[in-house]
Design brief:
Layout: E1 24-27, H1 29-32, H2 35-46, E2 51-53, H3 67-74, E3 77-81, E4 91-93, E5 97-100, E6 104-105, E7 110-111, E8 126-129, H4 132-139, E9 149-152, H5 163-166, H6 168-177, E10 182-188, E11 205-211, H7 214-220, E12 221-222, H8 227-238, E13 250-257, H9 263-277, E14 284-290, H10 295-304, E15 318-321, E16 327-330, H11 333-350, E17 356-359
Parallel strand pairs: 1-2, 1-3, 3-8, 5-9, 9-10, 10-11, 11-13, 13-14, 14-17
Antiparallel strand pairs: 4-5, 6-8, 7-12, 15-16
Helix pairs in contact: 8-9, 9-11
The structure holds iron/sulfur cluster.
Amino acid sequence: MPEVQEEVNVKSVVRKSKLWMPKRVIITPAALQEPWGQQMYERVKSLGLPVEELKQNRLTGLRGEDERETYRKAKNTLAIVTAPASAFKLQPIPPSADYQFHLAEGCPAHCQYCYLAGSLQGPPVIRAFANLPAILENLKNYRKPGQVTTFEASCYTDPLGIEHVTGSLSETIRFFGEQENMHLRWVSKFDQVDGLLPLAHNGNTHPRLSLNTDFVAARMEGGTASVDARIAAIRKLAMPKVLGGGGYKVGIVLAPIMPLPDWQDQYTYLLDRLEQALNFSCEVTFELITHRFTPGSKALLQEWYPNTSIDFDESTRSLKFNKFGGKKFVYPAVTMNMLRSFFQSELKHRFPDAPILYWT
Ligand code: SF4
Protein backbone atom coordinates (compact mmCIF):
# COMPACT_ATOMS: atom_id res chain seq x y z
CA MET A 1 0.00 0.00 0.00
CA PRO A 2 1.47 3.44 -0.90
CA GLU A 3 2.46 5.87 1.82
CA VAL A 4 -0.17 8.43 2.57
CA GLN A 5 0.29 11.86 1.01
CA GLU A 6 -2.35 13.82 2.84
CA GLU A 7 -3.51 14.76 6.30
CA VAL A 8 -6.55 13.18 7.92
CA ASN A 9 -9.29 14.44 5.66
CA VAL A 10 -11.59 11.91 4.08
CA LYS A 11 -13.37 13.75 1.33
CA SER A 12 -16.38 11.53 0.72
CA VAL A 13 -19.70 12.82 1.97
CA VAL A 14 -20.52 11.00 5.16
CA ARG A 15 -23.52 10.96 7.47
CA LYS A 16 -22.07 11.40 10.93
CA SER A 17 -23.97 9.77 13.74
CA LYS A 18 -26.07 12.22 15.71
CA LEU A 19 -24.72 12.39 19.25
CA TRP A 20 -27.06 10.54 21.54
CA MET A 21 -28.75 12.91 24.00
CA PRO A 22 -30.73 11.00 26.63
CA LYS A 23 -34.13 12.48 27.50
CA ARG A 24 -33.69 11.41 31.11
CA VAL A 25 -30.50 11.21 33.19
CA ILE A 26 -30.57 9.74 36.69
CA ILE A 27 -27.78 9.28 39.20
CA THR A 28 -27.81 7.12 42.30
CA PRO A 29 -26.52 8.29 45.72
CA ALA A 30 -23.69 5.73 45.54
CA ALA A 31 -22.65 6.97 42.09
CA LEU A 32 -22.68 10.57 43.29
CA GLN A 33 -20.14 9.67 45.97
CA GLU A 34 -17.67 8.45 43.36
CA PRO A 35 -15.34 11.10 41.87
CA TRP A 36 -15.85 9.55 38.41
CA GLY A 37 -19.62 9.71 38.96
CA GLN A 38 -19.29 13.41 39.72
CA GLN A 39 -17.22 13.87 36.57
CA MET A 40 -20.04 12.30 34.53
CA TYR A 41 -22.63 14.39 36.39
CA GLU A 42 -20.77 17.60 35.45
CA ARG A 43 -20.24 16.41 31.88
CA VAL A 44 -23.94 15.69 31.40
CA LYS A 45 -24.94 19.02 32.95
CA SER A 46 -22.52 20.86 30.66
CA LEU A 47 -24.40 19.33 27.72
CA GLY A 48 -27.51 21.06 29.02
CA LEU A 49 -29.20 17.88 30.25
CA PRO A 50 -30.99 17.95 33.60
CA VAL A 51 -29.91 15.25 36.05
CA GLU A 52 -32.27 13.67 38.60
CA GLU A 53 -30.58 12.67 41.86
CA LEU A 54 -32.23 9.49 43.09
CA LYS A 55 -32.86 8.86 46.79
CA GLN A 56 -32.03 5.18 46.53
CA ASN A 57 -29.52 3.07 44.64
CA ARG A 58 -32.13 0.78 43.08
CA LEU A 59 -33.48 1.86 39.71
CA THR A 60 -37.26 1.73 39.57
CA GLY A 61 -40.04 3.07 37.33
CA LEU A 62 -38.20 2.20 34.15
CA ARG A 63 -41.00 0.18 32.54
CA GLY A 64 -43.65 1.41 30.13
CA GLU A 65 -47.05 -0.12 29.47
CA ASP A 66 -45.68 -2.76 27.12
CA GLU A 67 -42.29 -3.98 25.85
CA ARG A 68 -42.13 -1.36 23.09
CA GLU A 69 -42.89 1.49 25.45
CA THR A 70 -40.35 0.09 27.93
CA TYR A 71 -37.80 -0.09 25.12
CA ARG A 72 -38.48 3.49 24.01
CA LYS A 73 -38.18 4.90 27.52
CA ALA A 74 -35.12 2.84 28.40
CA LYS A 75 -33.15 3.73 25.26
CA ASN A 76 -33.66 7.39 26.17
CA THR A 77 -32.42 6.98 29.74
CA LEU A 78 -28.88 7.28 31.04
CA ALA A 79 -28.43 5.94 34.57
CA ILE A 80 -25.17 6.75 36.32
CA VAL A 81 -24.73 3.90 38.79
CA THR A 82 -22.01 1.91 40.51
CA ALA A 83 -21.15 -1.44 38.95
CA PRO A 84 -22.18 -4.38 41.14
CA ALA A 85 -19.66 -6.64 42.89
CA SER A 86 -20.05 -9.20 40.07
CA ALA A 87 -18.35 -6.72 37.71
CA PHE A 88 -15.11 -7.37 39.56
CA LYS A 89 -15.11 -11.08 38.73
CA LEU A 90 -14.07 -11.09 35.09
CA GLN A 91 -15.30 -13.66 32.60
CA PRO A 92 -13.33 -15.00 29.62
CA ILE A 93 -14.61 -13.93 26.20
CA PRO A 94 -13.14 -16.12 23.46
CA PRO A 95 -12.40 -15.61 20.60
CA SER A 96 -12.41 -11.83 21.02
CA ALA A 97 -10.16 -11.43 24.09
CA ASP A 98 -8.94 -13.08 27.27
CA TYR A 99 -11.44 -11.24 29.48
CA GLN A 100 -14.43 -8.95 29.19
CA PHE A 101 -15.08 -5.99 31.45
CA HIS A 102 -17.64 -3.23 31.32
CA LEU A 103 -17.54 0.57 31.41
CA ALA A 104 -21.31 0.60 30.97
CA GLU A 105 -24.20 -1.68 30.10
CA GLY A 106 -26.71 -0.87 27.36
CA CYS A 107 -26.37 0.99 24.09
CA PRO A 108 -28.19 3.95 22.52
CA ALA A 109 -28.32 2.43 19.01
CA HIS A 110 -31.21 0.41 17.58
CA CYS A 111 -29.79 -2.56 15.71
CA GLN A 112 -32.55 -4.95 14.79
CA TYR A 113 -30.26 -7.94 15.37
CA CYS A 114 -28.78 -6.51 18.61
CA TYR A 115 -26.38 -8.87 20.34
CA LEU A 116 -27.46 -7.53 23.71
CA ALA A 117 -31.10 -8.63 23.34
CA GLY A 118 -31.68 -11.15 26.06
CA SER A 119 -28.15 -10.83 27.51
CA LEU A 120 -28.92 -8.02 29.92
CA GLN A 121 -31.61 -8.15 32.56
CA GLY A 122 -34.46 -5.65 32.65
CA PRO A 123 -35.24 -2.65 30.45
CA PRO A 124 -32.34 -1.67 28.13
CA VAL A 125 -31.44 1.51 30.03
CA ILE A 126 -27.88 2.72 29.44
CA ARG A 127 -26.09 2.27 32.76
CA ALA A 128 -22.70 4.02 32.98
CA PHE A 129 -20.44 2.92 35.82
CA ALA A 130 -19.30 5.60 38.24
CA ASN A 131 -16.71 3.40 39.98
CA LEU A 132 -14.55 3.26 36.84
CA PRO A 133 -11.18 3.71 38.63
CA ALA A 134 -11.87 0.62 40.78
CA ILE A 135 -13.02 -1.34 37.71
CA LEU A 136 -9.79 -0.48 35.92
CA GLU A 137 -7.57 -1.16 38.92
CA ASN A 138 -9.15 -4.60 39.29
CA LEU A 139 -8.04 -5.55 35.76
CA LYS A 140 -4.44 -5.73 36.96
CA ASN A 141 -5.39 -8.80 39.01
CA TYR A 142 -6.12 -10.67 35.77
CA ARG A 143 -2.82 -9.95 34.05
CA LYS A 144 -1.19 -13.21 32.94
CA PRO A 145 2.48 -13.31 33.89
CA GLY A 146 4.95 -12.91 31.02
CA GLN A 147 2.39 -12.46 28.26
CA VAL A 148 -0.03 -9.90 26.88
CA THR A 149 -3.51 -10.16 28.37
CA THR A 150 -6.37 -8.74 26.30
CA PHE A 151 -9.50 -7.11 27.73
CA GLU A 152 -12.68 -6.50 25.71
CA ALA A 153 -14.77 -3.47 26.74
CA SER A 154 -17.67 -3.65 24.31
CA CYS A 155 -19.57 -6.83 25.12
CA TYR A 156 -22.43 -4.98 26.81
CA THR A 157 -22.21 -1.50 25.35
CA ASP A 158 -20.88 0.63 22.51
CA PRO A 159 -18.34 2.65 24.52
CA LEU A 160 -17.78 5.23 21.77
CA GLY A 161 -21.51 5.83 21.30
CA ILE A 162 -21.77 7.14 24.87
CA GLU A 163 -18.29 8.66 25.23
CA HIS A 164 -19.58 12.26 25.07
CA VAL A 165 -21.69 11.66 28.19
CA THR A 166 -19.23 9.46 30.10
CA GLY A 167 -15.60 10.19 29.13
CA SER A 168 -14.96 6.61 30.27
CA LEU A 169 -13.46 5.29 27.05
CA SER A 170 -10.75 7.99 26.96
CA GLU A 171 -9.96 7.34 30.61
CA THR A 172 -9.69 3.62 29.93
CA ILE A 173 -7.40 4.15 26.92
CA ARG A 174 -5.16 6.38 29.08
CA PHE A 175 -5.11 3.73 31.84
CA PHE A 176 -4.09 0.96 29.42
CA GLY A 177 -1.47 3.27 27.93
CA GLU A 178 0.30 3.20 31.29
CA GLN A 179 0.18 -0.59 31.75
CA GLU A 180 2.53 -3.29 30.56
CA ASN A 181 1.29 -6.41 28.81
CA MET A 182 -2.35 -5.35 29.05
CA HIS A 183 -4.23 -4.58 25.86
CA LEU A 184 -7.65 -2.99 25.49
CA ARG A 185 -10.05 -3.95 22.72
CA TRP A 186 -13.30 -2.22 21.89
CA VAL A 187 -15.62 -2.02 18.92
CA SER A 188 -18.13 0.58 17.77
CA LYS A 189 -20.65 1.57 15.13
CA PHE A 190 -20.16 5.27 15.88
CA ASP A 191 -17.64 7.70 14.45
CA GLN A 192 -16.88 10.47 16.96
CA VAL A 193 -13.21 9.53 17.34
CA ASP A 194 -11.56 12.97 17.28
CA GLY A 195 -11.16 13.08 21.08
CA LEU A 196 -9.35 9.73 21.01
CA LEU A 197 -6.67 10.73 18.52
CA PRO A 198 -4.31 12.65 20.86
CA LEU A 199 -4.47 10.10 23.70
CA ALA A 200 -1.25 8.40 24.86
CA HIS A 201 -2.36 4.84 24.13
CA ASN A 202 1.18 3.49 23.66
CA GLY A 203 -0.04 0.85 21.25
CA ASN A 204 -2.01 -0.85 24.02
CA THR A 205 -5.46 -0.15 22.58
CA HIS A 206 -6.90 -1.94 19.57
CA PRO A 207 -10.03 -0.08 18.41
CA ARG A 208 -12.29 -1.77 15.87
CA LEU A 209 -15.18 -0.45 13.85
CA SER A 210 -18.05 -2.71 12.95
CA LEU A 211 -18.92 -2.49 9.26
CA ASN A 212 -21.59 -3.91 7.03
CA THR A 213 -23.21 -3.15 3.69
CA ASP A 214 -24.91 0.23 3.29
CA PHE A 215 -28.24 -1.59 3.07
CA VAL A 216 -27.78 -3.32 6.43
CA ALA A 217 -26.44 -0.16 8.09
CA ALA A 218 -29.27 2.04 6.81
CA ARG A 219 -32.12 -0.43 7.35
CA MET A 220 -31.10 -2.38 10.40
CA GLU A 221 -28.70 -0.26 12.47
CA GLY A 222 -30.77 2.73 13.61
CA GLY A 223 -28.97 5.54 15.42
CA THR A 224 -25.47 4.55 14.25
CA ALA A 225 -23.04 6.37 11.93
CA SER A 226 -23.21 5.67 8.20
CA VAL A 227 -20.76 3.19 6.73
CA ASP A 228 -18.75 6.00 5.12
CA ALA A 229 -18.54 7.84 8.45
CA ARG A 230 -17.27 4.68 10.15
CA ILE A 231 -14.69 4.14 7.42
CA ALA A 232 -13.56 7.76 7.86
CA ALA A 233 -13.27 7.12 11.61
CA ILE A 234 -11.12 4.03 11.04
CA ARG A 235 -8.86 6.03 8.76
CA LYS A 236 -8.39 8.72 11.40
CA LEU A 237 -7.66 6.16 14.12
CA ALA A 238 -5.10 4.35 11.96
CA MET A 239 -3.39 7.42 10.51
CA PRO A 240 0.03 8.13 12.08
CA LYS A 241 0.02 10.70 14.86
CA VAL A 242 2.42 12.95 12.96
CA LEU A 243 -0.27 13.30 10.30
CA GLY A 244 -2.94 14.16 12.84
CA GLY A 245 -4.33 10.66 13.31
CA GLY A 246 -4.43 8.38 16.33
CA GLY A 247 -1.65 5.96 15.30
CA TYR A 248 -3.68 2.99 16.54
CA LYS A 249 -3.51 -0.55 15.30
CA VAL A 250 -7.08 -0.86 14.06
CA GLY A 251 -9.55 -3.62 13.40
CA ILE A 252 -12.57 -4.20 11.22
CA VAL A 253 -15.40 -6.35 12.50
CA LEU A 254 -17.56 -7.43 9.58
CA ALA A 255 -20.79 -8.29 11.34
CA PRO A 256 -23.34 -9.59 11.14
CA ILE A 257 -22.59 -10.98 7.69
CA MET A 258 -25.85 -11.74 5.89
CA PRO A 259 -26.23 -13.23 2.40
CA LEU A 260 -28.94 -10.80 1.32
CA PRO A 261 -29.69 -10.23 -2.41
CA ASP A 262 -26.60 -8.83 -4.22
CA TRP A 263 -24.46 -9.55 -1.19
CA GLN A 264 -21.29 -10.13 -3.22
CA ASP A 265 -21.63 -6.75 -4.95
CA GLN A 266 -22.51 -4.94 -1.77
CA TYR A 267 -19.66 -6.39 0.29
CA THR A 268 -17.28 -5.81 -2.64
CA TYR A 269 -18.29 -2.15 -2.69
CA LEU A 270 -17.71 -1.96 1.07
CA LEU A 271 -14.24 -3.52 0.84
CA ASP A 272 -13.34 -1.26 -2.11
CA ARG A 273 -14.00 1.82 0.01
CA LEU A 274 -12.14 0.39 2.96
CA GLU A 275 -9.12 -0.41 0.83
CA GLN A 276 -9.16 3.13 -0.52
CA ALA A 277 -9.43 4.64 2.97
CA LEU A 278 -6.55 2.58 4.38
CA ASN A 279 -4.18 3.47 1.54
CA PHE A 280 -1.19 3.97 3.82
CA SER A 281 1.01 1.76 5.93
CA CYS A 282 -0.94 0.66 9.02
CA GLU A 283 -1.74 -2.40 11.08
CA VAL A 284 -5.23 -3.77 10.56
CA THR A 285 -7.01 -6.97 11.60
CA PHE A 286 -10.33 -8.51 10.59
CA GLU A 287 -12.98 -10.38 12.55
CA LEU A 288 -15.79 -12.03 10.60
CA ILE A 289 -19.09 -12.88 12.26
CA THR A 290 -22.14 -14.29 10.47
CA HIS A 291 -25.66 -13.55 11.61
CA ARG A 292 -27.10 -15.86 14.26
CA PHE A 293 -29.91 -15.72 16.78
CA THR A 294 -31.28 -17.61 19.76
CA PRO A 295 -34.96 -18.30 20.48
CA GLY A 296 -34.79 -15.71 23.29
CA SER A 297 -33.14 -12.97 21.24
CA LYS A 298 -35.56 -13.55 18.34
CA ALA A 299 -38.61 -13.19 20.60
CA LEU A 300 -37.34 -10.00 22.21
CA LEU A 301 -36.13 -8.41 18.97
CA GLN A 302 -39.43 -9.11 17.25
CA GLU A 303 -41.17 -7.38 20.11
CA TRP A 304 -38.81 -4.39 19.94
CA TYR A 305 -38.86 -4.22 16.12
CA PRO A 306 -42.17 -5.66 14.90
CA ASN A 307 -41.50 -4.53 11.31
CA THR A 308 -37.98 -5.92 11.17
CA SER A 309 -36.64 -7.22 7.89
CA ILE A 310 -34.16 -9.54 9.63
CA ASP A 311 -34.52 -13.14 8.52
CA PHE A 312 -35.45 -15.09 11.66
CA ASP A 313 -36.70 -18.18 9.82
CA GLU A 314 -35.39 -21.20 11.77
CA SER A 315 -36.29 -23.58 8.94
CA THR A 316 -33.49 -22.16 6.77
CA ARG A 317 -30.89 -22.39 9.55
CA SER A 318 -28.76 -24.99 11.28
CA LEU A 319 -29.20 -25.50 14.98
CA LYS A 320 -26.13 -25.32 17.22
CA PHE A 321 -25.76 -25.76 20.97
CA ASN A 322 -23.38 -23.85 23.18
CA LYS A 323 -21.52 -25.49 26.05
CA PHE A 324 -24.38 -24.71 28.45
CA GLY A 325 -26.92 -26.38 26.16
CA GLY A 326 -28.35 -23.06 24.84
CA LYS A 327 -29.63 -23.12 21.24
CA LYS A 328 -28.55 -20.81 18.46
CA PHE A 329 -29.54 -20.71 14.80
CA VAL A 330 -26.72 -20.21 12.29
CA TYR A 331 -26.51 -20.45 8.50
CA PRO A 332 -26.20 -23.98 7.13
CA ALA A 333 -22.72 -25.28 6.26
CA VAL A 334 -23.09 -24.71 2.53
CA THR A 335 -23.92 -21.00 3.04
CA MET A 336 -21.18 -20.62 5.65
CA ASN A 337 -18.58 -22.09 3.28
CA MET A 338 -19.68 -19.84 0.43
CA LEU A 339 -19.47 -16.72 2.60
CA ARG A 340 -16.20 -17.73 4.17
CA SER A 341 -14.39 -18.35 0.90
CA PHE A 342 -15.70 -15.07 -0.54
CA PHE A 343 -14.35 -13.01 2.38
CA GLN A 344 -11.09 -14.90 2.68
CA SER A 345 -10.30 -14.38 -0.97
CA GLU A 346 -11.45 -10.73 -1.10
CA LEU A 347 -9.48 -9.83 2.01
CA LYS A 348 -6.37 -11.71 0.95
CA HIS A 349 -5.88 -9.75 -2.24
CA ARG A 350 -6.86 -6.38 -0.75
CA PHE A 351 -5.15 -6.63 2.64
CA PRO A 352 -2.51 -9.36 2.23
CA ASP A 353 -0.80 -8.57 5.56
CA ALA A 354 -3.96 -8.23 7.65
CA PRO A 355 -4.75 -11.28 9.77
CA ILE A 356 -8.29 -12.61 10.01
CA LEU A 357 -8.49 -13.16 13.76
CA TYR A 358 -11.50 -15.47 13.54
CA TRP A 359 -14.49 -16.51 11.47
CA THR A 360 -17.68 -17.54 13.16
S1 SF4 B 1 -24.42 -1.06 18.38
FE1 SF4 B 1 -24.25 -3.18 19.18
S2 SF4 B 1 -25.04 -3.05 21.27
FE2 SF4 B 1 -25.71 -1.19 20.20
S3 SF4 B 1 -27.77 -1.67 19.43
FE3 SF4 B 1 -26.29 -2.15 17.80
S4 SF4 B 1 -25.80 -4.34 18.08
FE4 SF4 B 1 -26.79 -3.61 19.98
